[in-house]
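Appendix B. One record, verbatim.
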Amino acid sequence: YRLEGISISNKDHEQLSLISKLKLSLPIVDAIGLSTQIISSQSLTKWFQSLDKLIKYSLSKLIFELLDKKINEKLTEIFFKKSLKNIQENEYPLQVILLVEHILFSLILEKQINKNKKKLFIQNMKFKIENQINVLIKNHTKQRDSLIIQRLYFRDVLSKLIQMENNLTLNSYEWLSLIKYQIDQNSRTENKIDFIQFSNRIHYNFEFIEPSSTFIISPMMERTLFQLTQAISAYRIGVVHAPLQYGRSTVIQTLAQLCGTNCISLLCDSLINVNQIENFHQGLVASNSWCLFKDIQKLSI
């Protein structure tokens, strides 16, 4: 977001008037029709809280709206289209399309696993996805890179399931290790989505995040994501240790994007003190954001 304006605030008296009118610029959000109406408040904190709440509500509304449209179709035909983005889907943000497609991918596989001819179905599904990838590559645009990467991940998942020698079940390691999304049908009114890997579960946070076209989920990244989801689910701090240029930051940013959560990067140095860290953590807790602390070995506290 780009916010233009001048304000006065302090810790003791938050209800101070704004000197000038705040001007909010949301070009991407306005283009797709997300709600941008916010309360008029003399408190800058309340103003931002209202903005945050409405953006998340608007995003969740679009996700479940598109999901309901897709579920009403025949699930086995969803991935057999020549193009991922039809006329109706153009009305939705790319983030919404990617999430809904991943949810449906999980639902379709889960539904087919308990059937006898599942391997034949998976092979046919992989063939159709490969055709879609070829179509997307031929009509390549920067925006479609994320769609191609997602489809490549789906293809790799299906290839791994086809090569299985043992019978695939819902308790198989190959199924449990997959990155999946789950919706509790009993709480649809609450619009809750969970990111799941094995028994680890992270609530989707509905932050509006423009998808990156560089987040490729490789087998190594998938294993690293599992370790991080374990730490987060157990309310622990996850530490990624690897040589430079091995994509440590990218792994965490990828997980944050998959969970719809805002992730802030902080470059640590010897000048950062305990009070600054405490204030920073208070802000993270209040905003339900994640933080990536880089070079923590440089901290002197």
